[in-house]
Design a protein that fits this description.
This protein has 410 residues and is mainly α. It has 16 helices and 2 strands. Helices cover 78% and strands 1% of the residues.
């Protein structure tokens, strides 16, 4: 069994977990606070749906860049300190959003996306190295923290804009929790940090079949998540809902993800039935997406059932993808390399999805073609689940100081 290392014992596993949760709360809030304000931003800045989608797509594509370079940054700075400086980038980007111009909004979103991408890779390595004995439960826990941040951000975005006098101040508010997370995490990192020079130079494992399948999985689940987080509220505003009510629907979608993210990875870890749980959750996500596309407001219940189904699918999808990497990689460096590839590819796909959806909305003057993009993402995820399966042992390249080592036997 993997156990906490000496550095973790000096700080205490509980303290490390607390710091991880504080950082994770900032990894979706800045993104979730934007969609309920899209229509206000479009009106104020005079931009179309494509340009509004580009703001979110730019952030997500920078998340991809951060994921790709994250292992190299980890090797240079150490994963623990790198995690702290990543959340500092999120704080700077959030603060820049106080300036209500399109160029500033785009630059701010790029900084936020880069910080989130870097942090995601560092977090995976931190969990694998310091909290590996409960990787599935811890991964679920920090994903829940991310979702809590996203839920609060989407629910209060419009009221904050009204109370603070504009959409830019509403989005800039998320500077505060990012600064607090930096203040909480950096002293912990100072106590548990491993020497940066000890990190092996492990390249992104493009040739590894398991890593490529994880990348396809993350491409599918991230496309569905970021597509809906960007366009769910505007979609129902187009159905006649008020911005505040649409923001509440987005918050309900986020809330549903929390129990799914917390429970499903733990159940999969206990029974080692990853394929079963992953298939069940992606089926929920596809069913909810098709329902929202074909029957947006069922009589009597409205879209809430679709939001619940989508929330279950997307809430469990992301942590299951990270958990299977943690289970099947031999150490923290290999875990960071595989997650860097998987998250990077996933974020590239997810970054293009909001932009493509916005363009399709402009061209077709409707949402059906845009939502079909998300159905395709769910089908890609389902195919990757079948290929990953329930392998009992890691088939990912081990890391050594000189580079990738041979594969473990079957």
């Amino acid at each position: 069994m993997n156990v906490a290392g000496p550095a973790t014992k000096r700080a205490g596993a509980g303290v490390v977990l607390l710091g991880v949760l504080a950082v994770a709360a900032n990894l979706r809030a800045s993104l979730a606070g934007y969609p309920p304000l899209i229509e206000s931003v479009r009106t104020d800045l005079g931009i179309g749906a494509g340009a509004a989608g580009l703001v979110q797509s730019g952030a997500i594509l920078m998340m991809a860049l951060g994921s790709f370079v994250g292992p190299a940054v980890s090797a240079r700075t150490g994963r623990e300190r790198g995690l702290g400086w990543s959340v500092a980038l999120i704080a700077v980007g959030s603060l820049l959003r106080a300036v209500p111009t399109l160029p500033t909004l785009v630059v701010a979103s790029l900084l936020i996306g880069l910080g989130i991408g870097l942090a995601g890779v560092q977090l995976t390595g931190v969990v694998k190295h310091h909290l590996a004995d409960r990787a599935g439960a811890v991964t679920g826990g920090y994903v829940v923290s991310m979702m809590v941040g996203a839920t609060v951000a989407s629910a209060i975005a419009v009221p904050l804009a009204v109370g603070l006098g504009g959409w830019s101040w509403s989005m800039a508010v998320w500077t505060v929790p990012a600064v607090l997370a930096f203040v909480v995490w950096m002293p912990i990192a100072g106590r548990i940090a491993e020497p940066a020079t000890a990190a092996p130079r492990l390249a992104l494992p493009w040739r590894d079949a398991f890593a490529r399948r994880c990348a396809c999985y993350q491409a599918g689940t991230s496309t569905m998540f970021y597509g809906w987080i960007t366009w769910l509220a505007p979609y129902y505003e187009g159905q006649g809902w008020s911005p505040q009510r649409a923001g509440i629907l987005l918050a309900a979608w986020s809330i549903t993800q929390i129990p799914a993210a917390l429970l499903v990875p733990a159940l999969a870890e206990r029974r080692r039935r990853w394929r079963f749980w992953a298939t069940t959750t992606v089926t929920c996500g596809i069913a909810g997406t098709l329902g929202a596309m074909l029957l947006p407001q069922p009589p009597g219940v409205g879209p809430w059932a679709w939001a619940v189904l989508m929330g279950v699918g997307m809430g469990a999808g992301f942590p299951l993808g990270l958990a299977v990497i943690a289970w099947r990689t031999p150490d923290g460096h290999a875990s960071a390399a595989v997650s860097g590839l998987a998250l990077g590819v996933g974020y590239v796909a997810a970054g293009l999805a909001p932009l493509l959806m916005g363009l399709l909305i402009d061209v077709t003057d409707g949402y059906r073609a845009a939502i079909a993009v998300l159905v395709a993402g769910g089908l890609l995820q389902a195919g990757a689940i079948w290929r990953i399966g329930d392998e009992p042992r890691s088939r990912v390249l081990s890391s050594t100081p000189d580079g990738p080592a041979s594969r473990p036997g079957p």
